[in-house]
Amino acid sequence: MPNAPRPAARPTEITRHGHTRVDPYFWLRERENPEVIAHLEAENRFVSESLSALEPLSGEIFEEIRSRIEETDTSVPVRRGNWWYFERTREGLSYPVSCRVPALGSSWTPPVIDSEASLEGEQTLLDENREAEGHDFLSVGVFAVSPNDGLLAVGVDFEGDERHRVDFRSLTEVPAPSEVLEDVYYGLAWANDSHHVFYTRVDDAMRPYQVWRHELDTAPALDVLVFEESDALYNVSVGRSRDSRVLVIAVGSSTTSEYWWLDADRPLGEWRVVEARRTGVEYSLEHALDTADRPWWLMTTNESATDFRLVARPREGSLWREIIAHRPGVRLEGVDAFRDYWAISERREGSAAVRLVPLGGVDIERDDLSDAGFLVEESAAASTVVLGANATFDAPVVRVVTTSLSQPRRVLDVDVNSRLSTLLKEQRVLGGYDASAYISGRVWVTASDGVRIPVSVLARRGVLVEDSAGELVAPEPAPLLLYGYGAYEISIDPSFSSLRLSLVDRGVIFAIAHVRGGGEMGRSWYEMGRLAQKPTTFSDFVRVAEHLVATGWTEPHRLAVRGGSAGGLLMGAVMNLAPHLLRAVVAEVPFVDVVTTMLDASLPLTVGEWEEWGNPDADPVAYRTMLSYSPYDNLRPADDATPRYPRLFATGGLNDSRVGFWEPAKWVARLRDLHPEAEVYLKMEMGAGHGGASGRYDAWRDEAQILAFILDSIRSTP
């Protein structure tokens, strides 16, 4: 095995609250330092050379991944105004092609798209393969068609740093404006005149804090700043209501919200606040019309409602009235307003659900809709029902998507009046996939404080079976991959992926631990895993792993774990807490240098993240709490009391604006110092950011390498 890269130790002292830490690798954050680049390139060579024996398996898995995917395919068309919009993918091409065809009459039945041939009148809007020519990376962060259907705003990022270059392209014979907007963040909103656009920019810490107005056919230097948020805790974004009546600026921190609005017909008008921010009060906003065509605001808020409630008021009014009351145990996640119905996104018993409420006969000024409407495809355990793409306010049907760990993605249109669902497309898995050959479901694990943690699982039948009570059990221990995230109230809902079949078809159990800090079980689930209670996330995950071993599902030498970003923090913390339980760890773009990063307000995201993790600079308690779990600070030296660390495969991105590339680099270097015998690998994307490789074939190759590493680890003997 080749020698692992060993960067020079250059100790830096960092002192806060009377406590001094010595960081030997603080200097690795110097992105422009040739020594740093040389070290990262050496890490990549080390991965390639050390894992060369896995290349046949990795290549085999890559071909399996390709063989299951219909590479030449189309998405289900989505109607917006007079056009149906969809995407094409073609075998051999890494990126999708965005297209549209004219909508004929009033039909809401999507046209059948031939994956091989173009339809009459089909128009190519954007071929991302052409955009990517000459570049190793491509991300399209802005794609917005003008209200008159004649122009397309496109924002591209070739570095992975999430700063986009926006230009305007004609979709008719009329020449497009020639100007280019630089350094644009995600999203762009058109005014109804198709002549003005609004967009956001970021500060030096990558915080979106400004909204600008641009007039077409004028120099960007003349653009007007219409909104600026000075408080570093808050981010801003700009959007357009589905009914095309208003433009909206959303301002928010992790715990507080504020919205501003503008008549979309009057782009030069004055922005007005809907509801001024109050610390700790979160809300999301939707513009709606009642049966008399009067404009209303719908507000989903946590004021006096842990799991949120819905209130409403006339757009020009001031008094809110409750429409949907707080329902303990049912998390109200949002409301999408259409002319004749509302689509309500909820979370019940850990599963995502959609409830549709017809508005016929509904009086917004008087009625209580807490129990109105009906659930779409009532969710079974460990299944997911979410809204799909719904672009048109007047649509008589609503698009939903259903899936589970064993059920490929299904796209449905639901008629709200008849309640009938039309299956438009089911994800096709090539090679004869038979869902009945697999078993998926949910098990519950009791944490140390008595709280029950849901765990979603997938396996081949026989690897897992149902006992006489209908509970899932393992007849004998099997290799197992346990995935986790647990932060920001983000829910890791069970959904189908043909890629993971390369594990499951080899006898591996796949499991997701829905630990606290995520949002699977409602707002309180999140609150129990953030700030001072963040260690609960880690202890939950360890408890799930212990349970899977104790109940005979797997054994420590056959157990691998995986997570990315904040889930990478989870992986690092679990490695330190329970190295004896694990054979292998995959930590992708991991947030592992928690204390140092959260002390540095100049870094991207840091200030805005204080409400999630705490402010260790100002609060000694937050400092000590973070220090107690920060993976980089809690690596333990080898001794008789410290079990050997598991195999580690970490990834990073040189252009990552969310988790600095130096975090995994420092972590890996320090782990090798303390445990020279440990198998530790770092793969650094030298031309990408937080999301890794952008082309689908490169992404599949990366995934195949990780899956080969996992299989090689958990199929081995102790």
Please tag this protein with its features.
alpha+beta, Rossmann fold, Methylamine Dehydrogenase, Chain H, five-stranded antiparallel beta sheet, 12 helices, 41 strands, 33% strand
End-to-end distance: 20 Å
Give the rounded overall mean pLDDT: 96
User: Radius of gyration, rounded?
Assistant: 26 Å
**And the CATH topology of the largest domain?**
Rossmann fold
Number of helices: 12
> How many distinct beta strands?
41
Count of discrete structural domains: 3
Report the structural category: alpha+beta
Residues in helix, %: 10-25%
User: What would CATH call the homologous superfamily of the largest domain?
Assistant: Alpha/Beta hydrolase fold, catalytic domain
Main sheet: strand order: 32-33-37-36-38-39-40-41
Reported for the largest beta sheet, the result is: 8 strands, mixed
Describe the 3D structure.
It contains twelve helices and 41 strands. By secondary structure, it is α+β, with helices and mostly antiparallel strands. The protein folds into three domains: 336 residues, Alpha/Beta hydrolase fold, catalytic domain (Rossmann fold); 53 residues, no CATH class; 147 residues, Methylamine Dehydrogenase, Chain H (7 Propeller). It has an eight-stranded mixed β-sheet, sandwiched between helices. It starts with 11 loop residues before the first strand and ends with a helix.
